[in-house]
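Sync notes, pocket subgroup
Present: LS, DG
LS reminded everyone that the earlier model was apo-only. Rerun requested with heme C included. Inputs:
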Amino acid sequence: MKRHFVPVYLILALATGLSCLAAFAQEKTITKVPAKPTTATSGKELFRQYCAVCHGQDAKGAGPAAAALKKSPGDLTQLSRKNNGKFPEQRVLATFKGEGGVTAHGSADMPIWGTIFTSMSSNLNESQGRIYALLNYVEEIQAK
Ligand code: HEC
């Protein structure tokens, strides 16, 4: 009779072990890696490569990394709507450059793209071009 209990205990231990592992695997962490250089110049492609991980492909804030951020990336298609129908160009540009505007960017989860694109390319026109391509793209996707 006693022998029958052994497998039961074994199975129980296994089950608890597995559920612990599953809980552990569900804990999300973000590993920051340096931005990879790119040859892309279109705003849409740049957005897909550098922004979608947090902001989501549709820019509505549900990128795969969003859940692990301290602050929600928000819905980038609503910027104009929330600004009386006018695209807040200066504020978005300031966000890219890490200057004021949106709360303390240096300490926030939103990377400072101005610096990242500048350090990625020795050609200033190219890095400025990428910033403006992204700015135009974000303006293009505004909800009407
Ligand atoms: C690591 C995650 C992450 C990545 C990658 C990222 N963002 Fe963000 N972004 C955020 C977070 C979080 C906020 C909100 C910051 C805050 O409110 O302090 C934000 C805010 C913004 C805002 C300001 C929205 C507003 O209300 O004014 C803009 C614009 C923006 N991001 C554009 C971009 C673009 C373009 C890229 C790609 C070049 C990008 N983001 C990449 C996390 C990210």
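DG: Residues 47, 50-51, 53-55, 65, 69, 71, 73-74, 76, 79, 91-92, 95, 102-103, 108-111, 113, 134, 138 surround heme C (CB under 6 Å).
LS: The domain at 30-140 is CATH 1.10.760 (Cytochrome Bc1 Complex; Chain D, domain 2).
Action: DG to write up.
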